[in-house]
Design a protein that fits this description.
Among the domains are: about 50 residues, no CATH class; about 70 residues. It is built from 11 helices and 7 strands. It starts with 9 loop residues before the first strand and ends in an 11-residue tail after the last strand.
Length: about 280
């Protein structure tokens, strides 16, 4: 761009220009030419003053870049935040703790607790279940968990594990067995090792050795490898049932070859040897 005259200032560039470099060329004829080199950076204005110097809009240059934040979408019927779920859980625990041990009374209170909710308060119910478990209120744990499952909510491995533990503590083995069979036939691809260990420990607590072997058969079919504690329980069940050969094969396949001992204040890894009664090793 070429401009003549230097007695006044000119607004050279639009707001999209940030920086200007000005070169002055003198000719013998007395005319002055202005040649500008432009770097395009947004939101700054450049001017030429009377002395031929480039002046930028310093206020605009000092402004920080502000990132545009997308608008938050609000859904009236899909409230996903967990605000206030702790208070709701404590309120639920308080309500059902004061009720008699009757299914109708407890279920009625639970239905009333969710009557004005736009969606099922799953987070609050899960927290209430955890509080009841911590306090050892096993009957209430069973009632709340069954109510959640009847509503089609909370069908997770964590809920099943808590319910199996409550059945174990409340000595309701038949219901635990029914729940386990339902889990095996429904969740064929997602049964956790912890849940398998839970059902084996439940049968072991009640001396049901044959049920332990059946649960182990389910684990093999599902492709779940038992942990160390479950291996000991299953091996003990084979021995009590007089199936020593199967026990040896089972331990050879699943028992860890290494164990850890504490020696002179240090944790030492040593090879495990299973000794028979005649003194030989497996």
């Amino acid at each position: 761009m070429i401009f003549g005259g230097m007695n006044s200032s000119y607004s050279l560039f639009p707001p999209q220009v940030l920086n200007c470099t000005v070169f002055l060329l003198q000719r013998a004829t007395g005319f002055t030419f202005l040649t500008t080199k432009v770097t395009r950076i947004p939101h700054v204005k450049c001017f030429i003053n009377q002395n031929g110097q480039s002046v930028s809009n310093s206020k605009a240059a000092q402004n920080k870049i502000v990132k545009k934040v997308g608008k938050n979408e609000h859904h009236l019927w899909k409230k996903r935040d967990s605000a206030g779920s702790g208070k709701k859980a404590l309120n639920l625990v308080k309500i059902i703790s004061e009720l008699p041990n009757e299914k109708e009374a407890v279920y009625g209170a639970l239905n009333k607790w969710t009557a004005w909710e736009t969606e099922f308060p799953l987070i609050a119910a899960a927290k209430a279940l955890k509080i009841l478990r911590t306090r050892g209120r096993w009957l209430r744990v069973i009632q709340v968990a069954k109510w959640m499952l009847s509503k089609g909510q909370g069908a997770t491995m964590a809920t099943y594990d808590t319910l199996l533990l409550a059945f174990d503590k409340d000595k309701r083995v038949d219901e635990a067995e029914s729940l386990w069979n339902m889990i095996v036939h429904t969740h064929t691809r997602s049964i956790s090792k912890q849940l398998c260990s839970r059902i084996v420990s439940l049968y072991d607590h009640h001396g049901m050795q044959d049920k332990i072997i059946e649960a182990f058969a389910d684990m093999e079919e599902l492709g779940v490898r038992p942990d160390e504690d479950t291996v000991r329980r299953i091996g003990r069940a084979f021995r009590k049932l007089g199936q020593e050969e199967k026990r040896k094969l089972f331990l050879k396949k699943y028992q860890c070859k290494w164990k850890y001992l504490h020696f002179n204040g240090e944790r030492v890894r040593v090879r495990r040897y299973a000794c028979n009664e005649d003194g030989s090793t497996e």
